[in-house]
């Protein structure tokens, strides 16, 4: 996972503050193309200053939703409010919104400077002011000396920054970004993630980003909405989405996860006990779930929350402990990934950090190992 | 080496097939003799005579005017048609309209010419316009069939044009009409220029459609050449053809030179962009 620019928690987050009014309100929006339902009764509230990510695979409806915000598509049903104003019937050129396109959509026949100035020119801003604001914006994205170049004379990263500058120069209240980093290589992408977050915090603009890259969404955004088949599967902060997924889809879409099927045998206020044939042990989880006893549920355990050992772990009472044989090891430098085949036949993925420097691994292929995890590690999924 | 030899022969034969007739035409334009097929020594007298032949020069001038006007008109109409086909999405009967725009490309010219003649005659009887047949009717006729070519060229260019360019312009506050003139038009300009040139050439070439819709006193150059065959071609026509070829060849040579230079410049720019990181 990439290094995360940590957001400083300065105040009560706006989505938890009942006094806050959402800046963008999407109300039961549906969009159909013929028989195909691209977006299905989606409702969302996005607050001023947020860095909001719409995350999903291809065909999940995320781009369609973004295009409806920009005004390139009209909702079949439902309403969109930006700053309290109903956007129905308002064309793209009259919305207080700018968009950064996946292809960047730089005008090939104009220089960098003219590209950035285009939006201001449409608004009839005075020439001196245009020059000043374009200059300042190009400095912000560190492209001052490329002002006279044409887009084809720039590298991919530079084009991306021109596109960003062009969409920000009009000082929109809301910026829509369609896969902003999709066309960049990995190293440049990580660097640009930081830049995007910094620029967003500096200018205080509300960002809505569409991405299929979960790492990108986790790194940059204040909140994420995970979309699947036109429906929002879950909305929450990156931590909430990762640690407390509400459905199998979300758990499996974000990061990797081990899924155990089981039956609830004990359901108390402070814990649940789940008997799992899959895991070959009882799963003890220290939070309550509201499911009928004997219900079949799935328990998700993240690979990095499982500990590997050759000796049976201390305090093992048969709960959250199981055994298996190491089948595959992938050494990634910072971490190693172990694929362990349990006695029940299920393969479990375990990630362990390589804290100590060594050339020989203490645990190697075909070793018999114990897997154990703490009571907080598992998440019960009922959907 | 054997192989190379055979290939070289094939090459020579191919080019000879294309260029020997033209070379002969140029050669005989400098022929002293009045008979086109008999060499009577070198002379430039046919060029001198050509410059005094008002009928031939007048026809050439008319042809150029008609070609320029109909090319311009067909570029305007063709761009609009291409735009509608490429940008209106899926409307009812789109395939039908798409097919209908290309139909004139395969329609026999005789039919195009005859139907236009009937239309002009009917129009003249009904509303008194066009008043007789001449330059106007030839221009209109040429516009009808060259427009189809232009529409196809523009449409294919627009299909490959990234639609998000137009959306980006709109997103930045430009109204649709402005987007067209400031973004779309400059980007597809090369396609428009090549469409215009194609239309110009097609119009300059045409003899069949023009024969149907021209009237007395308005004879295009191809018509003059065609009709003069009956009395034996005067070497003046060779001279005129040679002159036109020189003009066209020079134009093409300059155009390709400019294009090659732009290509080199673009390659250098891209190199610079990669190095500039």
TrEMBL record, chain A:
Enzyme Commission no: 7.6.2.11
Superkingdom, taxonomy of origin: Bacteria
Domain ABC transporter: 24-254
Sorted UniProt keywords: ATP-binding, Cell inner membrane, Cell membrane, Membrane, Nucleotide-binding, Translocase, Transport
GO MF: ATP binding
Function: Part of the ABC transporter complex PotABCD involved in spermidine/putrescine import. Responsible for energy coupling to the transport system.
Gene encoding the protein: potA
PROSITE patterns, per database record: ABC_TRANSPORTER_1, ABC_TRANSPORTER_2
PANTHER family according to UniProt: PUTRESCINE TRANSPORT ATP-BINDING PROTEIN POTG (PTHR42781:SF5), SPERMIDINE/PUTRESCINE IMPORT ATP-BINDING PROTEIN POTA (PTHR42781)
UniProt-listed InterPro entries: AAA+_ATPase, ABC_SmlMolc_Importer, ABC_transporter-like_ATP-bd, ABC_transporter-like_CS, Mo/tungstate-bd_C_term_dom, P-loop_NTPase, PotA-like, Transp-assoc_OB_typ2
Subunit and interaction comment: The complex is composed of two ATP-binding proteins (PotA), two transmembrane proteins (PotB and PotC) and a solute-binding protein (PotD).
SMART domains per record: AAA
Entry similarity comment: Belongs to the ABC transporter superfamily. Spermidine/putrescine importer (TC 3.A.1.11.1) family.
Organism, as annotated: Azospirillum isscasi
Protein name, entry field: Spermidine/putrescine import ATP-binding protein PotA
Keyword Cytoplasm: no
From TrEMBL, chain B:
Keyword rRNA processing: no
Compartment(s): Cell membrane
Protein name in UniProt: ABC transporter permease subunit
Lineage, opening ranks: Bacteria, Pseudomonadati, Pseudomonadota, Alphaproteobacteria, Rhodospirillales
Species assigned in the record: Azospirillum isscasi
Bilayer disposition of the protein: Multi-pass membrane protein
Domain ABC transmembrane type-1 positions: 60-258
Family per similarity comment: Belongs to the binding-protein-dependent transport system permease family. CysTW subfamily.
Protein keywords: Cell membrane, Membrane, Transmembrane, Transmembrane helix, Transport
InterPro entries: Bact_Polyamine_Transport, MetI-like, MetI-like_sf
PROSITE patterns: ABC_TM1
Source taxon at top rank: Bacteria
Principal localisation: membrane
Membrane-spanning ranges: 7-30, 59-85, 97-123, 135-158, 179-199, 237-260
